[in-house]
Design a protein that fits this description.
- This protein has helices spanning 2-13, 16-66.
- By secondary structure, the chain is mostly helical.
- It is rod-shaped and about 85 Å long.
- 0% of the residues are buried.
Length: 70
């Protein structure tokens, strides 16, 4: 029982994990709003860009296969 009390006291007094926890919270507080912004605003723009370029690539590939490209 005495070892258990010593272990609890040692863990309670240690501040080793506090810096890591604070760092994770700060990074999360910065990253979450950025991620939400990218998903809400940026993703539709990325999707539109990708779709239009894929259709252009498809047209160019078809033109190259048929020999009508210029």
């Amino acid at each position: 029982m005495r070892n258990w009390k010593n272990l609890v006291r040692k863990v309670h007094e240690s501040e080793d994990g506090a810096v890591s926890l604070e760092t994770v919270l700060v990074v999360g507080a910065i990253a979450i709003p950025i991620l939400i912004f990218v998903i809400k605003v940026g993703w539709p723009m990325i999707q539109t860009y990708f779709t239009s370029n894929m259709s252009t690539l498809q047209q160019d590939a078809t033109a190259a296969q048929t020999g009508t490209g210029g």
